[in-house]
Write a structure and sequence with these properties.
This protein is α/β, with parallel strands linked by helices. The protein has two domains: 9-103 and 238-269, Rossmann fold, CATH 3.40.50; 117-231, Rossmann fold. It is 40% helix and 18% strand. It contains ten helices and twelve strands. Strands 2-1-3-5-6-4 form a six-stranded mixed β-sheet. The chain has a six-stranded parallel β-sheet with strand order 9-8-7-10-11-12, sandwiched between helices. Helix 1 crosses helix 10 (258-269) and helix 4 (104-115) packs across helix 9. It is globular.
Length: 272
């Protein structure tokens, strides 16, 4: 185990509700690879002061979660293409006082679209209209998917998201069709809606592929129903592992293997 010293490089996270997930993921890999790094989660009521601290203290990396993902933009010096694509930030890298902002959620979804060989000619329906939905919709747009529908109860947010990326919005579940269905809501997430199925069973059975961005649990009701129906599935566990791995590589400059990502992800999930 690395002993903290004056040369230890610090990385942090800023979130409204900090968790141990990122902390365990990053510190597990620092320890396994013998890197003199440490990662600590924080919350703050002074975002401007926190980012000034990142710059002034030479903190190498800063993960950014809700509710800071958009508010942090003017506090950085440069937006990477991933952050520009959705005007939202989840990662800041400090290079000698210059802060570059990224969005590794967007990068992870983009990679998974390609890795699972999703067909750009297939229609897509995305349930949700929050920040992560923006990352998902932008990733599909930039992968040249021309036919996408945003499904959202919130009319203002759903319409705004669809309009921003040139798609259409609906408020109710469509008729079952041969399409890619994507859940970007809390439906199926650990908590009050853990038993909720994000799409009707008929839609799941008619789908070409199913993508559930919910990471906890890895097997949501939607994922289990899709597997039972024999559909190709992309899980939120894949998203969270890929985005964290990309952060790790941005902070350390060290590439990690799929096996290392899997072990660190499993370790991070033990804490909930």
């Amino acid at each position: 185990m690395t002993i903290l010293n004056k040369d230890t490089t610090l990385c942090i996270s800023l979130a409204g509700r900090p968790s141990n997930i990122g902390t365990r993921f990053h510190n597990y890999l620092y320890d396994e690879l013998g890197l003199n790094f440490a990662y600590k989660a924080f919350t703050t009521r002074d975002l401007d002061g926190a980012i000034r601290g990142v710059r002034a203290l030479g903190i190498r990396g800063c993960s950014v979660s809700m509710p800071f993902k958009e508010a942090v933009i003017p506090l950085t010096d440069e937006l990477n293409a991933s952050a520009k694509a959705i005007e939202s930030v989840n990662t800041i890298v400090n290079n000698d006082g210059r802060l570059t902002a990224y969005n590794t959620d967007y990068e992870a979804v983009s990679e998974l679209i390609g890795r699972h060989a999703l067909d750009p000619g297939a229609p897509v329906i995305v349930r949700g209209s929050g920040g992560m939905a923006k990352a998902v919709v932008a990733a599909f747009r930039d992968a040249d998917f021309g036919n996408l529908t945003v499904l959202a109860r919130n009319a203002a947010a759903g319409r705004a998201l669809a309009d921003k990326y040139g798609y259409r919005w609906v408020q109710r579940d469509p008729q079952p069709a041969d399409e890619i269905i994507v859940n970007v809501t809390p439906l199926g997430m650990n908590g009050p809606e853990a038993d909720a199925l994000a799409f009707p069973l008929a839609n799941i059975e008619a789908a070409r592929a199913v993508f559930d961005v919910v990471a906890f649990p890895a097997e949501t009701p939607l994922v289990r129903a899709a597997q039972a129906a024999g559909k190709p599935v992309i899980t939120g566990a894949e998203v969270i592992a890929l985005q964290a791995a990309r952060q790790f590589e941005l902070y350390t400059g060290v590439s990690i293997t799929a096996d290392q990502v899997e072990r660190a992800s499993a370790f991070s999930r033990e804490s909930g």
